[in-house]
Specification:
about 25% helix, Peptidoglycan synthesis regulatory factor (PBP3), Domain 2, 5-stranded antiparallel beta sheet, alpha+beta
Length: about 375
């Protein structure tokens, strides 16, 4: 018998969440995502090719974090600064101001990259890890492919002008997601507002984080600015407020002020126009379903992924979350047996469905108990 249970979740659903007909920002290309649901709330030419500029440095940090996690690199390890790396600090680029012959720790180089946007620190880290920056760029592109960045190629570690260093705001969003999900502790570097480098041959230099949103009351906690004359201004940004995270990527802002103002506008629009609804949590029982001839009358079921929906506040309809199964389920039941479906429906139309798994084993009753149970069922309909 097909059984249905309705979970007590009445929320809003807009079948096409991405509705930006009456909203726009002053960027050539942009995208906004609700991190937990994964839903795209706004997009503007998101697959248009861009020069990612210093947003490239996000991947440079990811490569280092990967190696630290695998044990092939540690934060206290020191790299000797080459003339090639130093040269960038004397060429007018954003710099950490390292000197030839300095032995600089991986942690300081990472701070110089993430907070001060130091191109010299990028080259030093790349050479220390891969021997040459060209080899490091190959590692970066391979990682991009692994993450699913289909329209990205990295030609250097810093993002300085190179026609072969290309990406899209959608790919930068995927990269930002990967960073935040895989390296939550390391990601905290991106929220630090200043970095002081005790340089050789001069007074210590303190530089502020170039992300303008960190200095606003938005809840911003990262991630990276960019600028190239051919691309103009860009920003990968994230806000975290009341357990909810939004990620915005924009490129082709005409001015620094536009970059700050329009990125804040986009994130604020996402926070105020949409709600995030938790439907189910990974590995957490969500309902009991009936068992036939088992030592327990019911078994708990769960899903193997967090399920969230992003809901437009202005278009409220009833969203139903339904559990269906062919029951009662006969014992024995093994943990992780698929027992039914969790279905998300709107006006009786299926939107998404997820497998429901048994949370525990349920053993079969002995022969005598099964006989009594069967008789009770035939007489009283009791399972």
């Amino acid at each position: 018998m097909i059984k249905t249970k309705f979970l007590a979740i009445l929320i809003t659903l807009l079948l096409s969440v991405n509705s930006n007909a009456a909203f726009d920002i002053k960027a050539r290309t942009a995208i906004l995502q609700d991190y937990l649901s994964g839903e795209i709330l706004y997009e503007k030419d998101p697959d248009k090719s861009i020069y990612p500029a210093s947003m490239t440095k996000i991947m440079t940090a990811i490569i280092a974090f990967d190696l630290i996690r695998s044990g092939d690199l540690n934060l206290n390890e020191k790299f000797l600064i080459s003339e090639n790396a130093w040269r960038l600090s004397s060429a007018g680029y954003s710099s950490m101001f390292i000197m030839v012959g300095d032995a600089v720790s991986v942690e300081n180089l990472l701070k110089g990259i993430i907070i001060a946007s130091g191109n010299d620190a990028c080259v030093a880290l790349a050479e220390g890890i891969a021997g040459t920056e060209d080899e490091f760029a190959i590692m970066m592109t391979a990682k991009a492919v692994e993450i699913g960045m289909e329209n990205t190629n990295f030609a250097n570690s810093s993002g300085i002008n190179n026609p072969n260093n290309v990406s899209t705001v959608r790919d930068i969003m995927l990269m930002s997601n990967y960073l935040i999900k895989e390296f939550p502790e390391e990601y905290k570097y991106f929220s630090e507002k200043e970095f002081t480098w005790d340089r050789t041959g001069g007074d210590p230099i303190t530089q502020g984080n170039r992300n303008p949103l960190l200095y606003k009351s938005l809840g911003a906690d990262g991630i990276k600015t960019g600028y190239l004359a051919v691309e103009r201004y860009s920003l990968a940004s994230s806000v975290y407020r009341n357990g909810r995270r939004l990620i915005a990527i924009g490129s082709g802002f005409n001015t620094k002020n536009d970059r700050s103002k329009e990125s804040a506008k986009l994130l604020t629009w996402g926070l105020t126009r949409f709600d995030l609804i938790e439907i189910a949590k990974i590995n957490t029982p969500i309902e009991n379903i009936d068992v036939w001839l088992g030592k327990k009358k019911t078994v708990e079921v769960y899903v193997k992924a967090d399920i969230y929906k992003t809901i437009p506040k202005a278009r409220k309809k009833n969203l139903k979350v339904v559990i269906t199964y062919n029951g009662p389920i006969p014992a024995p039941i093994k943990k992780d047996d698929i027992l039914g479906k969790l279905k998300v429906t709107y006006k009786n139309e299926l939107i998404e469905e997820y497998d429901l798994f048994a949370f525990e084993d349920v053993k079969k009753l002995n022969v005598f108990s099964r006989l009594l149970k069967s008789i009770n069922f035939l007489i009283w309909g009791d399972v």
